[in-house]
């Protein structure tokens, strides 16, 4: 409650009540015009709601994209004696779960398999063509020998089988190293010949992970190895929270 002067006799001041609207400068004929604020409330509420929905949709899309092959990864990785968390970490870095991904080096699919590795896999299965080899792991394979490399490796299950086979082959090859995982990942990305050049066989058995990684001359490969190991550790931690 406040007061308004009505008359001013000597020595006295007369006051009368006024409404709260007059305190803020409104005339006695009406209250402050609040229409602009009221008009803004609805669109602001709509914008807030849309923003929240957008975050929820984005979060759902991210979860779907990064988990849609989980079951397949577990099945194929287990077949080759690999930890599914490791395979998933490799896929994240290689293709970010895009089965149609293709690099400038002609690597294709989830695990970015190259034609040379696909040929090695075919020969390891003692088959003549990639199409014949693909038919042994994918029920979706059609055309047999006529199937192109790009078509074959765009099939997620085919890329997983060849990629897991190659990764397991490298881990077995470097099993005697002090840190076989780091060496195998470097070979997966840059090739065994570069690994041998950076750290000859006589040296690798004595190198710690940090020492070996420091010898990798390609910054891309060095970051690749570090990121996969870090993500692999995160996946294992998420799987088995302490």
Provide the number of structural domains.
2
Count of helix runs: 13
Q: Please provide the ordered H/E string of secondary-structure elements.
A: EEHHHHHHHHHHHHH
- Give average pLDDT, whole number: 85
> Mind telling me which CATH architecture of the largest domain this is?
Orthogonal Bundle
Amount of helix: 55-70%
Please indicate the percent range of residues in DSSP E strands (runs of 2 or more): under 5%
CATH fold group of the largest domain: Lysozyme
- Helix/strand-derived category reads mainly alpha
Distance between the termini: 61 Å
Kindly state the number of beta strands: 2
Low-confidence runs of at least 5 consecutive residues = 1-7, 14-30
- Walk across the major sheet and give the strand order: 1-2
The largest β sheet comes out as: 2 strands, antiparallel
The CATH class of the largest domain: Mainly Alpha
Q: For the CA atoms, what is the radius of gyration?
A: 33 Å
Principal-axis shape equals: globular
List the helices and strands and how they pair.
Blueprint lengths: L1 E4 L9 E4 L1 H4 L11 H33 L2 H10 L4 H11 L20 H10 L5 H6 L13 H5 L2 H18 L6 H11 L1 H7 L2 H4 L4 H7 L3 H21 L3
Antiparallel strand pairs: 1-2
Helix pairs in contact: 3-4, 3-8, 4-13, 8-9, 9-10, 9-13
Put the structure in a nutshell.
This protein has 2 domains: 2-64, no CATH class; 70-239, Lysozyme (Orthogonal Bundle). The protein is built from 13 helices and 2 strands; from the N terminus they run ββααααααααααααα. By secondary structure, it is mostly helical.
């Amino acid at each position: 409650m406040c007061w308004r002067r009505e008359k001013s006799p000597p020595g006295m001041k007369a006051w009368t009540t006024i409404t709260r609207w007059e305190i803020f400068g409104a005339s006695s004929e009406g209250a402050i015009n609040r229409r602009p604020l009221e008009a803004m409330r609805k669109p602001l509420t709509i914008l807030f709601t849309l923003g929240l929905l957008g975050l929820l949709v984005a979060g759902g899309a991210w979860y779907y994209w990064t988990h849609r092959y989980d079951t397949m990864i577990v099945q194929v990785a287990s077949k080759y004696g690999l930890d599914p968390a490791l395979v998933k970490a490799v896929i994240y870095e290689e293709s970010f779960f895009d089965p149609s991904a293709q690099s400038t080096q002609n690597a294709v699919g989830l695990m970015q398999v190259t034609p040379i590795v696909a040929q090695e896999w075919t020969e390891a299965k003692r088959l003549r063509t990639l199409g014949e080899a693909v038919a042994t792991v994918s029920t979706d394979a059609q055309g047999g020998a006529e199937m192109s490399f790009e078509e074959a490796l765009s099939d997620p299950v085919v890329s997983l089988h060849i990629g897991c086979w190659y990764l397991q082959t490298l881990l077995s090859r470097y099993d005697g190293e002090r840190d076989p995982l780091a060496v195998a990942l470097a070979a997966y990305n840059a090739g065994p010949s570069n690994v041998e050049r950076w750290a000859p066989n006589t040296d690798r058995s004595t190198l710690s992970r940090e020492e070996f990684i420091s010898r990798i001359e390609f910054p891309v490969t060095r970051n690749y190895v570090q990121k996969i190991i870090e993500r692999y550790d995160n996946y294992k931690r998420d799987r088995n929270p302490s």
